[in-house]
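Good morning,

Both structures are done.
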Amino acid sequence: MDAPQAVTFPPGRAVIDLPGQLPAVVQTPYIDKRELRSCYIQLARHLTACCFTSEQAIPALSESEKDQLFKRRVQEGLSRNAASMEVYGRRYAGDLVERGKRALGEL
């Protein structure tokens, strides 16, 4: 944008350019990188500890049944990572990718 003052703006400020009007300085929401990183780390720790533990995998099912449940959950619209966490108790990676491809018929 052709507004030289934009280079020296403090965090939380922006220039808005609306049709038919002069550019204007506005206040915007602002979270600095350290605060955002801290929030992200806390959320990741909480989710890991509370939501995605291996105890939440479905242990009573056979591997074949887990594969079928994984397939159903993906077909219902759940992401492969989320379905993998729910069914197998771990991320969709490594050996699970091959198992998932077989279950989904994509080999």
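Second structure follows.
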Amino acid sequence: MNQGIAAHKAGADVTMVTKLGRDDLAQIALKSFKSAGMKIDYVFFDDEHETGAALIMVENGTAENEIVVSIGACNFITDDEVESVRKEIKNSKLLLTQLGTNLSAVYKAIDIANK
């Protein structure tokens, strides 16, 4: 999600595709997407799983980092949900993915983009 927000702030026309839980963290994420003016038509929700989160630790002297990820709801994006974004993906110049999403969804999005 951070990469999408950064790309949007840099001037890209970003459509966020993600899955959030029904928790407080989801509300924070939605608020940040909306306040940045991002398209959120393809933000899906999961009633059973929490919103994913990442802890990023950066070493002060070297700037080396470690990231601990809890994928949460993003691990449950379905092929049908990705399929519902097909037109948006096909009409995009660039597809940005990350491994904070289940691999099936990532591969399906890449397959759509390649076609």
